[in-house]
Design a protein that fits this description.
Belongs to the UPF0719 family. By secondary structure, the protein is mainly α. The protein is built from twelve helices and no strands.
């Protein structure tokens, strides 16, 4: 009994180090978010009760957690080495997620200023999409860091993932009867939910290609683009089936245009669920 208790306490102490590091990483992530913005996030959240910014920061912190979890789940090289590696990769994640904010503003949602929408208009639809973009990027970064992933592989696959998300956004805009930017600028939460759910579903599929670990560039890139093509094909089909079977009595596009968040929740949930099942089945 004494031996088992000793091992148990040792394991608790071992795991407590990772929990303490995670708390420190979250605090550092919040600080880095503040330093990368021209506005005072504390005032926005407390004095102005800015839910749009809260959604964005929540997505950012969630993304840091995803990256932390992926790195932590990798092969152990000893407590001290693990703590150093997790810290370094988490900092890399913060840098890349700050890049995501810039790309989200300049390329993904380029027809309006994200900062103006978040701060001046407190547009929760834009905040939701920005949060989803952070977490989608984190899934790709985390997938790239599994196995024998390196800093270089994480950056390369992050860049490719962001490019594919931008391409997917353009394709999504063409396939729907409404204008994505126009509806988001109007604060349409249903459109934001639909787009965010589908974007996360694509990121889950892309992450799947990287979960086996990094072996060779040719193999990893091939799997990544095959899964990307599969995602580009299957997600519009899923949306079409949701429209024709589950919501056969209404038009899905019309429901999104009318800001029907109830329908949007179901649609985005199905897209994410299908992506998860794909990663399990394949």
């Amino acid at each position: 009994m004494d031996i088992n208790l000793t091992h148990y306490l040792a394991a608790m102490a071992y795991n407590s180090a990772y929990i303490a590091l995670f708390i420190a990483i979250i605090a550092l992530a919040k600080l880095s978010y503040n330093l990368a913005t021209p506005y005072n996030t504390t005032n926005q959240l407390t004095d102005n009760a800015n839910t749009a910014l809260g959604l964005s920061i929540g997505g950012y912190l969630g993304a840091i957690t995803i990256i932390y979890g992926f790195v932590l789940a990798g092969p152990s090289k000893g407590l001290l080495t693990d703590l150093i590696n997790v810290s370094l990769y988490s900092v890399l994640g913060m840098v890349l997620l700050t890049c995501s904010r810039f790309l989200n503003d300049k390329l993904l949602l380029r027809l309006f200023c994200n900062q103006e929408q978040l701060i001046n208009r407190q547009n929760e639809a834009v905040g939701l999409v920005q949060a989803a973009n952070y977490m989608a990027a984190a899934l790709i970064i985390g997938g790239a860091l599994t196995g024998e992933g390196t800093w270089l592989s994480a950056i390369v696959f992050y860049a490719l993932g962001q490019l594919l998300l931008i391409m997917f956004a353009k394709g999504y805009d063409h396939l729907t009867a409404f204008d994505l930017h126009e509806q988001l600028e109007k604060g349409n939460k249903a459109v934001a939910m639909s787009f965010s759910g589908t974007m996360l579903a694509l990121a889950i599929i892309l992450c799947h290609a990287l979960l086996g670990g990094f072996h060779t560039w040719q193999q990893s890139l091939s799997l990544f683009f095959i899964d990307a093509l599969f995602g580009f094909l299957i997600l519009p089909i899923v949306r079409y089936l949701v429209d024709k079977i589950i919501f056969s009595k209404i038009s899905l596009d019309q429901a999104m245009h009318d800001n029907n968040t109830a329908v949007a929740v179901i649609e985005s949930s199905i897209a994410i669920s299908v992506a998860v099942i794909i990663t399990i089945a394949i």
